[in-house]
Amino acid sequence: MNAYSTTLRGIASALTSRPRVEQTVHLSATLYRSPDAPRHIVLVIPHGQDKGEYYEVSDTGYRLLQDGASPEYLELEPVDYDTFEGD
């Protein structure tokens, strides 16, 4: 990512009035419960922190997190990945 794309994301965020946060999003697992709607378990680490939270999201939620939408903005609840067994 370069300064130009970062600036464009900031402008797009301002225009859509969606707050953008600095965070790292790691894809941990993909669950195929149905063929047309996979679910993803992602680890979201806020900028400047060592630890994060796991969330279960759709393809759209995953893309929004990568684009800077916070889990709070998307109204996501953390999941316990250590005991997660995906139905």
Describe this structure in words.
- The protein has one domain.
- The protein has a four-stranded antiparallel β-sheet with strand order 1-2-3-4.
- It contains two helices and four strands; from the N terminus they run H-E-E-E-H-E.
- Strand 2 (39-46) and strand 3 (53-57) form a beta hairpin.
- The relative contact order is 0.20.
- It starts with a helix and ends in an 8-residue tail after the last strand.
- The longest helix is centred in the first third of the chain and has 14 residues, at 3-16.
- With 87 residues, the chain is an alpha+beta fold.
Oligomer: single chain
Which sheet architecture does the biggest sheet show? 4 strands, antiparallel
- The Cα radius of gyration reads 14 Å
Shape: globular
Count of discrete structural domains: 1
Number of strands: 4
Q: Cα distance, first to last residue?
A: 36 Å
Q: Helix content range of the residues, please?
A: 25-40%
Mean pLDDT: 83
Structural class: alpha+beta
Q: List the secondary-structure elements in sequence, H or E.
A: HEEEHE
